[in-house]
Input
Amino acid sequence: MNIKTRAIVLSALKYQEKSLIVKCFTESDGLKSYFVRDAFSSRKTSQKNAYFQPLTILEIEAVHKNKGTLEYFKEIKISAPFHSIHADIVKSTIVMFISEILHHSIHEEEKNEHLFAFLETALTWLDNHDRIADFHLILLLETTKYLGFYPDVSEINQPYFEMTEGIFSAFNAISSLSESESDLLKKLIGLKFSDDHKLFSNAQRQQLLKILIDYYAFHLDGFKRPKSLEVLKDVFS
Output
């Protein structure tokens, strides 16, 4: 089946000497993996590599056989080139980290247009703004809305956040955050990309990042902590 859709690159793994296996989150079909033959063998190698940078948004025409095997691109172009993300060390580190998170979080080969639209809007915002210290925290939390485990805020005035159920509670269970950690999470909930980015200290951001990674691990089977986590911590230290 021939498909025309937009796609966000989650990962690109070199295969043998000249080829790539590219994992994308597509607008039409959710998660798809593609085989790119001879990605490193032509005069247009640098151009091809630019297609597959983390979280690049593509417009693709592809053959989808939907048999659980690797699919193939027929045509590919960058949908909206980023101006600053891959040139700015902080932004590129954030994007590398987020791409790893999404790589280990999105597993379904089914469309999730709302998640795609959110990610596209968020990446465009990141590319066009410089006050980005809380961007990765907001994105991680907001993404849980589309993955099905956003915190239940109906009892947000309760002092403890219980991680396995995703609820605020009056009781301090084994899997609950401390009261101070719960307060940090409450501050993050509802925060928008455009809000004041002086709300948290660097230490508090590191604390929130650990909370969010732990929260993903509680709710996603097989979730792996991203290798780029330490690099991200260094950038914001």
In short: The two ends are 48 Å apart (CA to CA). The chain has seven helices and seven strands. The beta strands are 2-15, 19-26, 30-36, 57-63, 72-78, 160-162, 167-169.
